[in-house]
Amino acid sequence: MAEFIGLLKLVVGCSSLLFLTFLVLLALPQSRLRTVGLECAKYVVAGALLLLIPSPMDVAPDAIPGIGWLDDIGYAIASIAAFRSARKDGKTRALYDEAERAELRRRAEGGQS
User: Fold this and answer.
1) Which of 7, 33, 71, 74 has a CA between 20 and 30 Å from the CA of residue 51?
2) Rounded to whole angstroms, how far apart are CA atoms 82 and 91?
3) DSSP letter at 53?
4) pLDDT, tens only, 71-111
5) pTM for the whole thing?
6) Who has greater pLDDT, 90 or 60?
């Protein structure tokens, strides 16, 4: 029971830290920190969901064939969705960065003429 309480404290502490980080990032609407931070958080969520698949802690016990695997399938689907969303955010961020670099180059060339 003591190990479970220790694990529970760790989970609550990490969740609180993650929640506070999200609050700070969401308060900065146009910052690079927000876009990169949320993209990284999605990768962390995808990894955490993948770690839940072989974990013995399940919503439905794996001893029940079929029903016991539904939560694992849900974790896999949610992990894939989080990973795809993070990749999309990364591509969008790269496009904005490229547009910003092009604008800076255009301004630099226009300023030297």
Assistant:
1) 33
2) 14
3) S
4) 888 899 999 999 999 999 999 989 988 999 999 999 998 86
5) 0.66
6) 90
| CA 113/CA 68 separation, integer angstroms | 70
Domain range summary for the chain, segments of one domain joined by +: 1-28, 31-112
- The confidence score (pLDDT) of residue 111 equals 64
Say if residues 22 and 39 touch (Cβ distance below 8 Å): no
Residue with tokens 């698949």: 53
In the block, which residue shows the tokens 């961020």? 93
Give phi and psi for 58, each to the nearest 5. -125, 155
Please tell me the distance from the alpha carbon of residue 60 to that of residue 52, in angstroms, as a whole number: 13
Quote the longest CA-to-CA distance of the chain.
74
Helix, strand or coil for residue 44? helix
Helices (H), the chain: 2-26, 32-52, 67-112
